[in-house]
């Protein structure tokens, strides 16, 4: 399984970005899709996830600002990021978990929020 993340870039505080992650396999193979991020010196952390039923979860730090969604016909999962803050600066990774608990990671896309 390959996951291709894209959409990162440089944005000013208060701006928006939309990340995309395209999978090489149908989403029916996965029980859960998620976006994680890792800032320099920090551990990788969960940002948002969406399961096969469409139930979403968010980290407290992004609740109300970020939105995860998926297009199962295109096998793409999105992360809409609004009202970005400098502390959102990180490399963002997408992850897919299969029904057999295998995990697959994308290559990461850098988001930089300038103050």
- Average predicted confidence as pLDDT: 97
Q: Helicity level, as a percent range?
A: under 10%
Shape: globular
Strand percentage lies at over 45%
* Tally of DSSP β-strands: 11
Count of helical stretches: 0
Cα(first) to Cα(last) distance is 37 Å
Commentary on this structure:
- By secondary structure, the chain is mainly beta.
- Helices cover 0% and strands 56% of the residues.
- The protein contains no helices and 11 strands.
Structure keywords:
115 residues, mainly beta, 7-stranded mixed beta sheet, 4-stranded antiparallel beta sheet, 11 strands, 0% helix
List the helices and strands and how they pair.
Layout: E1 3-6, E2 9-12, E3 17-23, E4 30-38, E5 45-51, E6 56-58, E7 66-71, E8 76-81, E9 90-98, E10 103-105, E11 109-114
Summarize the structure.
This protein has no helices and eleven strands.
